[in-house]
Amino acid sequence: MYTYTMNLKEYTYNIFIGENYFNEILDRILQTHPYNKIMVITDQTVSELYLNAFSIHPDTFIETFVVSDGEKSKSIETASQIYEKLAEGNFTRKDLILALGGGVVGDLAGFVASTYLRGIDYIQVPTSLLAQVDSSVGGKVAINIPQGKNLVGSFYQPKAVYIDVAFLKTLPIREIKSGLGEIIKYAMLVDEGLVEKLTNLSLETLYSHLQEIVLKCVEIKGRYVVEDEKESFLRMHLNLGHTIGHAVESYENYEVSHGECVLIGMYYMAKLSENQTVMITLDRLLNAFEINNIYNYNWSDLIPYMKRDKKNSGYDINLVMFKNVGETEIVKIPFEVFEASIRRY
Amino acid sequence: MYTYTMNLKEYTYNIFIGENYFNEILDRILQTHPYNKIMVITDQTVSELYLNAFSIHPDTFIETFVVSDGEKSKSIETASQIYEKLAEGNFTRKDLILALGGGVVGDLAGFVASTYLRGIDYIQVPTSLLAQVDSSVGGKVAINIPQGKNLVGSFYQPKAVYIDVAFLKTLPIREIKSGLGEIIKYAMLVDEGLVEKLTNLSLETLYSHLQEIVLKCVEIKGRYVVEDEKESFLRMHLNLGHTIGHAVESYENYEVSHGECVLIGMYYMAKLSENQTVMITLDRLLNAFEINNIYNYNWSDLIPYMKRDKKNSGYDINLVMFKNVGETEIVKIPFEVFEASIRRY
Known about the structure:
2 copies of one chain form a homodimer.
Chain A: E1 2-7, E2 12-18, H1 25-32, E3 37-43, H2 44-50, E4 61-67, H3 76-88, E5 96-101, H4 103-115, E6 121-126, H5 129-135, E7 140-145, E8 148-155, E9 160-164, H6 173-190, H7 194-199, H8 210-227, H9 242-251, H10 258-273, H11 276-288, H12 299-307, E10 316-324, E11 327-334, H13 335-342
Parallel strand pairs in A: 2-9, 3-4, 3-5, 5-6, 6-9
Antiparallel strand pairs in A: 1-2, 7-8, 10-11
Helix pairs in contact in A: 3-4, 5-6, 5-8, 6-10, 9-10, 9-12, 10-11
């Protein structure tokens, strides 16, 4: 069991990482914060597997809200339904929202928590690898609108995050690969031993190293968040691969996993770097985990989606460029210059 | 022209109070912050009277979004429409939302600004007396859901507030009286010369004293906000009259003005105080501005609405009680005790 403490300027909370302790999480939460009521937000698949461990407690009234699986639930409509259920259940600022699920559930539940009554407590229990290493860490919460992903949201930190790698045993391989997308991003972004560790693993041997890998990713992301909670500059490095990745996601109507889209974006950024070490290292990491088929897209399809990305401030675009493995820089260039460059690949 | 500086812990901004300078506001904003794009959010009535002064500028692209008059526009549906217009117009974190209107427009536009792209800048130009002395000050923004008023929102400070009392010349008397509701609340809450000043005025003589009165109210509210931005305790005093007031508002389907509802709530709190000075002072203030007909309500109708108020944490209720004119205290009592007390009046 590991604990990472997120030491923000005005606020501190813990991220716990362990294996097979999910049955104790509700007890642990209530020992630290004796909430009167908890609204557990989860999705169909997770609810069938794990909701039992989170739906009954002798000291606390627990309601549950089960959303449909998938990105479509990160909508204003679903958020509205949860607001109404919270209000009808007389949830107050003393109560808790618990997000039990992957990135969709975490982002949606966190956004609802950030805005219901101008903010009530929430705790993340991420059940997907992607959520454990990325979306549950750092307080970025959001929902989608028809014009794009995460266009409506908040910076809003949880009271705690409880990560149990045992959840990952029931994940389909596609979801593991999606999480690996962000893990490989951290490796390419700062390295710090992650490249070597990962290239020596495979999909078969991964599980027994997950606690340390998740901890390492949480530590890396945590550092960026502590330095730049509201993403004014430094935190932008975490968007490595995301400019193109988000465009692919929108273009594919969210049917390609987020992690894979990040890999696709990073793959083109690696090409753009024209640095052989970057290309070779990324290829080795992709091979280790049998991630093939980095699809080819038609730039004319993706460009309009990129233009709408919220990170593309004003007429310029902030681009996370590879200098080398473990070394990136943020380059602010006119979107048209970037467009001309990538069209060559 | 007065300037009040809101000195928050992490952030400072100015509230400007003047007369008949609204034609210069756009210039002043752009001199301080050279925004690329501005989305002006306003309502039907205000747009007909004043939008001209805010819709064209040689240096900046300005779009406008006109909502229907009235509380119904403070909805998730209207917020969604604005999000979509912002996204379609490629508004980024470098752009501005300008709220030109009363409390409905300010709350709605501020909430959209707090959540679009996880927060973009907004500036308030309040055009109603209520918004000038209350809702535009302090960063509480929100929308309504069917279950109640302001149940979804944020604490989100504007970049600046530009108050022009000239807007008030075109306000119907009902709206002036609504603003007076909150002004009288400040007088009853802290006094500081406001009681005497106000009792010597009338609806006819009010206008020529408005700049100083608005400044005084902004200063009073500002002090509470600076001490307790997120309303953990001290700021609750500003809710004087609001527990019952909000219930009346919901019960009346928002057809009775907010300020009048606050007066109704304060009136019952004055009765409950059983303090003659409080009762007499409030009566004199109401008489000075010809505010009669403090309606009688059936408690059985109002109680369910009070129970749902977001300030009523857990099973207890935080009540702002009069000790005397200019002196209040927050009393935490079980809702049932409060219910039994007010049922006697």
